[in-house]
Amino acid sequence: MLAPSVDTIRLVLHLLGVAVWVGGQIVVGAIVPVVRRSHPEATRAIARGFSYAAWPGFALAVVTGLWSLAVVVDVAATSTEYQVTLLVKIMLVMTSGAAAFVHQIGTTKLAVAAGGAVALLAALAALVLGQTLTT
């Protein structure tokens, strides 16, 4: 049996963080409207519970992404297209985190809705660009 390398562990941790962050937003986004109709008081508890997993997942994805940049990618030796794609991905990750924070602390329906939508769309776009950078 092959032993997992440090690179394998780093990549698996990164994918785990991304799966929790992006996948969790999709799942919670699908569950909350259904629960809101039958148990409106439960939506806050669901959102709070999700945040206990989501923010560590986000942090894990960011830390392991930076780890990858530090030890795997020589950004200076990459093409301009790669560097632009990487910069846009980083901006999308930051946008996703900031929008999710707005969603979490929002006090108006607009802030909550826009924050959640932008957080998910930016996360999905960052996911696509992350895959683009690996191919």
Structural account:
This protein is mainly α. The chain has 4 helices and no strands. The chain has helices spanning 6-38, 42-71, 80-105, 109-134. Helix 1 (6-38) packs antiparallel against helix 2 and helix 3 (80-105) packs antiparallel against helix 4. The longest helix has 33 residues, at 6-38. The two termini are 27 Å apart. The mean pLDDT is 95.
Keywords:
mainly alpha, 0% strand, globular
Entry summary:
The protein has 135 residues and is mostly helical. The chain has 4 helices and no strands.
Low-confidence stretches: none
Count of separate DSSP helical elements: 4
Q: How far do the termini sit from each other? A: 27 Å
Mean pLDDT: 95
Task: Please tell me how large the radius of gyration is.
Answer: 17 Å
N to C succession of SSEs: HHHH
Annotate the secondary structure layout.
Blueprint: H1 6-38, H2 42-71, H3 80-105, H4 109-134
Helix pairs in contact: 1-2, 1-4, 3-4
